Amino acid sequence: MPVDFPEYAPVEYTAPVVANKPVWADDEDKIAEFKFNALDGDTNRVSFDGTYEIEKDTSRPINLHGRTGMRGRGLLGKFGPNHAADPVVSRWQRLANGEVARDEEGQPVLEIVFIKRKDTGEWALPGGMVEAGDTVSVTLKKEFGEEALNSLEADEVARETLKAVVDRIFQNGDEIYRGYVDDPRNTDNAWMETVAVNFHDKTGSAFGHFNLTAGDDAGSVAWVKVTPDMALYASHADFVREVYSRRSADYGSA
Ligand code: RP5
Ligand code: MG
Ligand code: MG
Hints:
Blueprint (H helix, E strand, L loop, with lengths): L10 E4 L1 H4 L19 E2 L2 E2 L25 E5 L5 E13 L17 E8 L5 E2 L3 E2 L6 H13 L7 H14 L3 E8 L9 E12 L16 E7 L11 H11 L8
Parallel strand pairs: 1-4, 5-10
Antiparallel strand pairs: 2-3, 5-6, 5-8, 6-7, 6-11, 9-10
Protein name: Nudix hydrolase domain-containing protein
InterPro entries: NUDIX_hydrolase-like_dom_sf, NUDIX_hydrolase_dom, NUDT9
GO molecular function, one term: ADP-ribose diphosphatase activity
């Protein structure tokens, strides 16, 4: 139960792009009919973090992780959880002769595909929202294709090649995290949750050859050796730390 806080006066904000009822957003006029804490048609309104409460007077869900200073949905389409998926595609950095590169301490260097988000300018995993009817596995591939391979702008032939690349990379996933994300868009009534999955190239040839090209949400894309001083989007530093730890890679110190 939230602690009483009588002075709490959050601002009410739902961005016009959300309030104008695009297909990906809830229509608040129908909120009383939504099946919260359940699968509601094509929309998964179940939280990974447990059962959330509903405000009696507004029928809006209450963020399980406390107050954000904002009521309404802000920039988010759904009331309650907005589900996303984050691919963490990793490999060992290699020298021209194919050997694994090592840092000053002799530790192997792990690299992860990161994008620079156009909205905040921060480094982020190339993740995105699970669209109605899609699964997490489909979203992982779709978002990686769109943001790290620019599949949206590829012609039909190139798109087939990219599909083969993505199918090859996304074979053996290791789930890193599922739950709430500390996303800057979260409000008291709408928040981000994600499933982060690591796909790792152990051998240097498992992924085959492909070129990174930024697309959609991504201003740029690169293989990045992440260090603790880098400003990463939302909770992405937590996911990265977990991957470095599971792969016994050196994350460095801040
Ligand atoms: C974050 O927002 C998630 O971890 C995921 O990376 C991202 C999804 O939103 P968009 O990239 O579609 O804006 O909370
Ligand atoms: Mg996207
Ligand atoms: Mg995205």
